């Protein structure tokens, strides 16, 4: 297989994002740029120079509509736990089916191509302490999920390598036996994340991952409407309260991080099929 250059990867991702944007606008589906992609749009008007992925988010009902309608468009597919066996994520990924992406440090289930992450937005509890406990419950399940699908790897010493891979083997076994499988854990995170969707709450956010903890809990007014922001020469949708969203997530987000922290958090290899 032929590896993609960063330039090729970004060009493919931009084509995917433009297709998603057009599809959503045509079908009345709400979406927004998310996380580092939104930060990149506001601070750099494009990719963060040391970043290599694109994230978007959708209110849960729009996410479900997108899942049903965007099954296969051009060379793209929307993968979720509902249509892909052993899909190890509680959110969706739009992939380019002409490519293969290997994540050697993240998952033994290599099911994806070059992708855009699509996160559902769910209701959060009104009370701060309740929200913390709820986020910790999701985080605990996510940590178990990660242990279940993380591949074997080396530790800093031979002893740590043995211990680490013994634990990995145990979690692979309980996954294979169905005792605590990837499928069950992903479904649990998905169910818990939707726990408050039937209630009237003042807050919402991306609950299916625990990366930013309670900082993902946003006032609903942030998502009251949308505004277009520039990203790599085109306009894409952002929540009207993007400044508050970015502040909640990153603090003083216009301040560049120290040089030593300007590095990608992904170690992926992407190839043409």
What are the SSEs and their pairings?
Blueprint: E1 2-3, H1 6-27, E2 32-33, H2 35-44, E3 55-59, H3 60-69, E4 72-73, E5 76-79, E6 92-96, E7 99-102, E8 115-124, H4 128-149, H5 158-176, H6 182-193, E9 203-205, E10 218-219, E11 226-231, E12 234-239, H7 242-250, E13 269-272
Parallel strand pairs: 3-8
Antiparallel strand pairs: 1-13, 2-3, 4-5, 5-6, 6-8, 7-13, 8-9, 9-10, 11-12
Helix pairs in contact: 4-5, 4-6
Q: What's the β-strand tally?
A: 13
Count of helical segments? 7
Average pLDDT: 92
Quick one: biggest sheet?
A: 8 strands, mixed
Strand content: 15-25%
User: Approximately how much helix is present in the residues?
Assistant: 25-40%
Q: Kindly report the oligomeric state of this protein.
A: single chain
Please describe the structure with a list of short key phrases separated by commas or semicolons:
273 residues, alpha+beta, three-stranded antiparallel sheet, 38% helix, globular
């Amino acid at each position: 297989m032929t590896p993609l250059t960063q330039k090729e990867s970004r060009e493919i991702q931009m084509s995917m994002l433009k297709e998603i944007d057009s599809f959503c606008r045509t079908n009345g589906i709400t979406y927004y740029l998310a996380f580092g992609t939104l930060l990149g749009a506001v601070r750099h008007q494009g990719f963060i120079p040391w970043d290599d992925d694109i994230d978007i988010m959708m209110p849960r009902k729009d996410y479900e509509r997108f899942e049903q309608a965007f099954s296969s468009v051009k060379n793209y597919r929307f993968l979720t736990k509902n249509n892909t066996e052993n899909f190890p994520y509680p959110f969706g990924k739009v992939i380019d089916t002409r490519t293969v992406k290997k994540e050697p440090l993240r998952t033994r289930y290599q099911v994806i191509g070059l992708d855009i992450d699509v996160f559902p937005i769910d209701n959060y509890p009104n009370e701060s302490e309740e929200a913390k406990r709820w986020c910790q419950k999701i985080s605990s399940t996510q940590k178990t999920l990660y242990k279940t699908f993380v591949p074997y790897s080396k530790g800093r010493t031979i002893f740590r390598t043995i211990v680490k891979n013994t634990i990995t083997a145990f979690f692979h076994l309980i996954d294979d036996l169905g005792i605590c499988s990837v499928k069950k854990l992903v479904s649990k995170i998905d169910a818990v994340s939707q726990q408050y969707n039937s209630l009237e709450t003042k807050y919402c956010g991306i609950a299916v991952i625990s990366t930013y903890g309670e900082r993902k809990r946003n006032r609903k007014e942030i998502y009251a409407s949308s505004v277009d922001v520039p990203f790599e020469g085109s306009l894409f949708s952002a929540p009207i309260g993007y400044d508050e969203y970015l502040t909640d997530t990153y603090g003083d987000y216009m301040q560049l991080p120290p040089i030593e922290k300007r590095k990608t958090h992904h170690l992926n290899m992407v190839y043409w099929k």
